[in-house]
Amino acid sequence: MTTTSWPAPNLPAMERSARFDRVRREISRHRADALLVTKLVNLRWLTGFSGSAGMLLILPRRSVLITDGRYRESASAELADARVDAELAVTSAPGEVLSELTREEELGCVAAEADDLSWASAQVADASWFPDAELVPTTGLIESLREVKESAEIARAEAAAGIADAALAEVVPMLRAGATEVEVAVALESAMRRLGAEEPAFDTIVASGPNSAVPHHRPTGRVIEQGDLVVIDMGATVDGYRSDMTRTFVIGEPSDTAGRLLEVVAAAQAAGVEEVVAGRPCRDVDAAARRVVAEAGWAEAFVHPTGHGVGLEIHERLRLAATSDDTLAVGHVVTVEPGVYLPGFGGVRIEDTVEVTGTGCRRLTRSSHHTVLG
Question: How far apart are alpha carbons 314 and 305 in whole angstroms?
């Protein structure tokens, strides 16, 4: 691989205003008058707000973003950039703002995000924030709307994937030079930031030799050696949207077992990608990849689902697993990542982030799968 530069992406604008209309229809379906949004990633999807403390009250004809003084300027700028008609309330007492809005709007029923609001916070909300309204739980109301990505969202995921591809190309030579796992992980994360990522999509995994048999190994000071399998799982973030990619390298000539592992997992990943088609049950993708591994005699060594949804979160609602009831649709962005792990020896995982299209799928992560470093 050669070093690749990454220009700052010219990203298309997102049409967030229409998202409020979709959310309001869901609020009505739940027979509520308003929705209190507390999950920060959902706030970002709706308003562009990227701070660490905030909530959004969506009312029938207005919306109010509530945050504290740390985010006065940034929240105002983000709302303007997002071009959404939401008011900004900056306060150290959000409960007072919410109770006042409840009285002004004569709210009878307020929906809340049960997956995010803690039991203690729900008790406070019920007693103090909405004393004159009934508080009702909802699960996955906004997350379900986020599953199908708009073209502008996919552009951001693709930009993130491009940054990760370029960073990996830069850092691969370190694998031959006796670097440690930690040194490689730090170099990858530094390169992604330098190339334009706002942050890594998750903690980078670099797992070498026997450590590669641990799917979520944390990088250590182990020196990468000749003959090692090296699993690198990495991703970048652009404007909140994440990519996810795994490549497994062999340092030097692979042993018979290592070569066979690479061959089987590559075939399983190709079989899974082939099944990523709109209208196809997610469990069929998992079954296709798992069938290849089982035929090689390693069924028990494939210890995780074949994939998951990706977007503003690295693991979103779609699951490509035997137990999944999800169905793929145009605009879904998912990973396909079979792996085989042999304790004491090593493991192989190959993963791409792909977009479901009208004719199958399109890879967003494009680094080569041919990873034997002789």
Answer: 15
The answer to whether the Cα torsion of 26, 31, 34, 39 is positive or negative is negative
Token output for 280: 């196809």
Amino acid residing at 52: S
Distance of CA 102 to the CA centre of its chain: 34
Cβ(343)–Cβ(323) below 8 Å: no
Q: Which amino acid is at 230?
A: V
Helices (H) and strands (E) in the chain, counts: 11, 20
Asked if residues 4 and 167 have their Cβ atoms less than 8 Å apart, the reply is no
Cα–Cα dist 150/333, whole Å: 10
Residue-wise pLDDT for 188-229, tens only, equals 999 999 999 999 999 999 999 999 999 999 999 999 999 999
**Which residue is listed with tokens 């903690």?**
203
Pairing of strands 205-208, 229-234: antiparallel
242, 364 Cβ separation under 8 angstroms: no
pLDDT tens readout for residues 74-126: 999 999 999 998 999 999 999 999 999 999 999 999 999 999 999 999 999 99
pTM, to two decimals = 0.94
